[in-house]
Amino acid sequence: MNLKPFISLLVLILFFLPKQVIAQSEYLTYIVKDTMPVNFDNIYSISQATIIPFTETIVIGNSVLTKNDYRFSYNAGTFFLSDSLPYSIFDTLTVTYQALNIGLLKEYKKRELVVKYDVVTGDTIRVVSSEAGGFSPESIFGPGIEKSGTIVRGFTVGSTKDFTLNSGLRLQLSGRLSEDIEIVAALTDENTPIQPEGNTERLEELDKVFIQIKHPNAVGTFGDYQIQRRESEFGVLDRKLQGLMGEFSYEENKGFISVAGSRGKFNSNIFNGVEGVQGPYRLSGINNEREIIIIAGTERVYLDGILMKRGEANDYVIDYSNSQITFTPNKLITSAGRITVDFEYSDRRYNRNFFGTGGETQFFNNNFSLKVQYMREGDDQDAPIDISLSDEDKDALSQAGDDRSKASKSGVSLAIPDSLGVIKGAYMKVDTLINNRSYTYYFYAPGDSTSIYNVSFTFVGEGLGDYIKESLGNYKFAGIGLGSYLPITYLPLPELKQIGNIVLSLTPFEDVSLSLEYAGSLWDKNRFSDLNDGDNYGYARNIFLKVNPRKIEIGNLSLGKIGLSYKDRFIQDKFTSADRLNEIEFNRNYNVSNSEQPQDEELREISLNLIPVDELSISSTAGLLRRGDDFKSDRYNNILKFSDLKNYNVDYNLDYVKSKNLSLSSNWFRQTGNAYYQLWKLTPGVDFLAENRKDKTTGSDSLLSGSLKYSDVGPYLKLTDFYGLNVTLKYSIRDDYLPLDGIMFKQSKAQTQFYEVNYSGIKEINSTLNFTYRNKKYTDLFKQQGFLNTETILIRSQNKIRPAESVDGDFYYEVSTQKSAKLEKVFVRVEEGTGNYKYLVDLNNDGIADENEFEPTVYDGDYIQVTIPTDELFPVIDLKTSTRWKIKYGELFASSSALSKILNPFSSETFWRVEENSREEDYKKIYLLQFSSFQNEDKTITGSNYVQQDLFLFENDQEFSMRFRFTQRKSLNQFSGGVERAYNRERSVRIRFKMIKEMNNQTDIANISDNVAAPVSSNRRRTTSGNNITTDFSYRPERNIEVGLKLKAGSTEDVLPEKPTTIDLNSEALRFNLSFAGTGRLRIELERTELIANTIENYIPFELTGGNLVGKNYYWRLNFDYRLSGNLQSTVSYDGRLQGSGKAVHTARAEVRAYF
Predict the structure, then answer these.
(1) Calpha distance 1150→1154 (Å, rounded)
(2) What b/e string do you get for 1045-1071 counting C-beta neighbours within 10 Å, with b at 16 or more?
(3) Over the stretch 590-618, which tens digit does the pLDDT of each residue have?
C-alpha cells in the first residue's frame, strides 16, 4: 500500500512536537549518501533539505575532510571547499549525513522558466512551464484527505502587558491515507475546556481533541473518546476518557485496550418529581456533594423508566456547570413521576486514571465463545487538584479507614492578621443555650471587630445540618437539625475500583443459547488507609439460558411460536460495578427500597414467550429476589400484545409483587394498558394505569405509610396529516388514595388535558402548539394534613406567518410552572485585559469583596461578573413570549395603485419580547399577560419587557434613507443583595444620504434615558437622560481608499445625586482605510474624546463615561491585514491611548494564520 500520505500526516503532527521529542526519536531520521564530481564553481548541493546539522561526513578521494576544509550552509543545503584544500578536478566527493524523514522537498514551485526550441522562429525561447507538486495542503496531507482548520502564531506586547507569545492549532481531518487506512482527527493545542450548553439534542463539544486511525482489523484512538461496553451482565462500562484506546479484530477474535485519564465518576440520582414543578432539579454526587460539574453528554435521564431526549424542542435541558436539570413543557412532571438520572461528574478532588482491556474469541463455528474483561479506575492520591492536603490531613485519612465521617476536620479557623496585625474575619463566635445545653454557633458579620473567624461549610443533606446558605460565603444558623450545612470539612477519600469478569457462551442447538458469567471486584474506598481492606473483594455470577421463539407443531396442529428464558444471578454484598447494573425500574419491579444497604442478593427469573399468531404475543415472567436473610420478593408479570402493526393495537401489562422484609409485608398489584384503532386519518385510543399497594406489619391489618392506590384513565384522539394538519387531544382522570391511621382514603383527583396541534399545510403558515393543563384537587381530609390544590400549565407555541410577500412575522409563547432561585452576583478573577471589571479597594474595611467595590472598565479588567443561583427555591410560573413583524407597506396594494406609490418608501420592523419569572399564585395573571401583575417586587424573581419599533423610509436605498427607532426595556431582578429595577429608553433618528458620488454621510440623533434603582450599597444606581448627535462622513476618492471623519457631541445628566451630575461630551475621530485588491487592508484611526463634568464630587457611573475619564482622552489605532498566499493570512495591530492626565498606554499585536 502507498504509505506516503500517512508519512506526510505523521510529519505534520511531529512538526508541532517539542524539539526534544524530535531529537530523541531516532526512527525519524535516516542516512543519506550523495556522490558528486568536483566542479569549477566550487558550490555543491545535497539532495535532502532536512539535513541534521553537524552530522555530515565529506570524503574527497580517499581523504576524510575536517570542519576546516569546507563551509556548510545548512539552510541552503550547500557547501564550499576551502581554497587551501589540495584536490583534483577529476576527484569525486562523497557526502554522508543524517536527515529527518519528513518528506519535505528542497523547493516547491508552480511554474518554472524553461528554454525551448521554437519551430516558427527557428530559435530558442524562454517560456513558463507549469509544475506539479507545489507547496499546498495537498502536498502535506495527500489528495484523499478532507481537511479544515488553522494554525496561529503571534505575539502581544504593551506598556501594561508583558511580551506574550500566542500560539494556536485547530485542525480537522478525515479521509483515507491508503486503501486500508482511514483517519479521522480533531486536533488543537488550546487548553480551554468549554462546557457546551445542554439545551440541544446534539452537543457541540468544542474542546474534543482526538486522532482515530481505522484499519479493517484494528482501530486506534488517541485523545478524547467514549468507551462503551455492554456485552454482559457485569461488564457494563460507559465512560468519557482522555488517552489511548486500541481495538482489533482478526477472524473470530477481537479485543480492546484502553489507557486514559478518567474525566469523572459515575453516579445515579433517583427522586420523585414535585407536583407542578418542571425544574430545576439539582443533581448531587455520591456523597451529596453540591459543588460538582456534570460531564457534558454523559447524562441519561429517565422518566417513569422511559429514556428522555435532551433539547429545548424535546424533553429536558441541563445546566452542566450548576448540575441542574429542567424538563420542557413537552413532558409534564407530577408528584408521581419517577425520575432517574445516570451521569458522570467531576468534583476536582484527585486526578483519576483508567485502564481497561478485554478480549473475545469464538470456537466451533461460533457455537462457543469466551469473553474476558478487566477494568481499573481510581483516584491518584498523590495528585490532588483543587485541594491541598497537609501531613495532618493525610494522617487523618490513613486513620479513617473506609469511614468518611472520620475523615473530617473543623471548618473554623482564626483569620490571618493583616500587615497592621489586625485580624479581620467574616464570622463571630456566639455562645448560647439550646434546650438547657450550651451550644456555640457562628454568625456572619464581616467588618465587626469581634469577627475573627473564617468558616468553611459543607452540605451534609436536607435536615442533617444546622445552617442554611444565604449567599456565597454567607451561612446562617437555623437551629440544630434545621439546616443543610455544618461548619466542617470532609477530606476526600481517594478510591480505587478493579472489576474483572469472564463469560462463557454456548449455542448447543439452533435457537438455544447458554451464558455463564463470573465477575470479581476490588473496591478500596480509601487508598490512604489499609484499615477495613478486608471487605474490598466481592464476586458475582450469572447463568442465563435462552430459547428463541420456535414453531411448535403437534401433527397438523400448530401451537405457534414458543420461547423460553431462565436467569439465575447471585451478587455478593461487597461486589461493586463500574456502571448501572440493573435495569432502570428494577427496584420498583421487586419493591426494593433505593436506600437499602447492600446485601447478598439472589435473583431467579423464568420467562415464557408465546406467539400463537403473528398478531398476538403473550409474555409471562416469574421471578424471585432474595437479599440477605430478611428480604424476599416474588414477582409475576404478564404482558399481552395484540396488533397488526398498522390499524389496531392493544397492550396490556399485569404485574404482581409480593415482598417481605422482617415484619413488613407488601402486596403490590400494577396494571398498564393502551389500545387504539385507526379509522381513516383518525385514531381513537385509551391509556390506562392502575396500582394498589398494601404495606402491613405482620399480624396487623393497618396499612402503613408506604401503601398507595390510584387509577388513571386517559382517552385520546389523533388526527393525522389532514391537509397538513396533525392534532392530538387527550383527557385523563387520576384518583389517588393514601392511608391515614392505617385506613385507605381518597387523597386527590387530578384532571389533565393535553392538546397538540401542528400545521404546515400551506407555505404561508407553519405552526405548532403544545398545551397541557392539570388541575389536582385534594379532599378535605388531606387538606387538613397541609396539602394544597395545585394547578399546572404548560404551553409552547411556535408560529411563522407570511400572509403576503410584504408581511413576514413570527410568534413564540411558552409558559411553564417550575421552581426558581434568587441570583447572586459573583466576580471571578481572570487574566488582566480579558475581564470587564476591576477591583477598587475594600471600601468598608470588612475584608469582603462587595459588589460596589468593583467598577466596570473597558481595557484593563481582571474580573468578570457571573450570576449563580442561591440555594432557596420558590415555586414560580415562567413566561417567555416574543413576536416579530416585518412589513413593506407599498407591497400591500397593487403596484399600479396610488396607495402603493405613496406607501412604497415606507417599511417597518416591530419586535416585542416579554419574560417573567414570578411567584404569583394566580397563574392566569401571568399567562393571560395581565401586565399590572408583572415586575412586582414582592412576586417577581426576574422579569423584562422589551419593545423595539423601527420605521424606515427608503430602506436600503443607497442615495437616501431614514430610520426612526423607539426602544424601551423595563426589567426587574431579585438578587441576593436586593431588588434591582432598570428602565432604558432610546428615541433616535438615523439619516443616510449620498452627498456626491464619492462621499456618504450617516447622522444619528438620539435621546436616551437610563435608570437603575438598586440597593444603596450598589454602585449601579443612576437616573440618567441625555441627548447626543453623531455624524459620520465617508469619502472614497478611489474604490480601494476610504477616508472618514466622525463627530459626536452630547450631554448626559444623572439626577440621582443631590447635586445632579452633568457630563458634556465632544468627540472627533479620523480614519483612513486602504484596500489591496482582495489581498489586504490598512486601517488607521485617530480619536479625541473630551468629557466635561460639572462636578467631581459625585460618583460617576460607568454608563455616563463609557470608559473614558473626565477630561481629554486620546486614542490611536493601526490595523494591517494582508493575505500572504491563498492559505496564509497575517495581521498586525497597534493601539494606544492617553486618558486624562495619565500616561500613554501602548499595545501591539502580530499574528500569522495559516488555513487548511
Answers:
(1) 14
(2) ebebebebbbebeeeebbbebebebeb
(3) 999 876 678 899 999 999 999 998 899 99
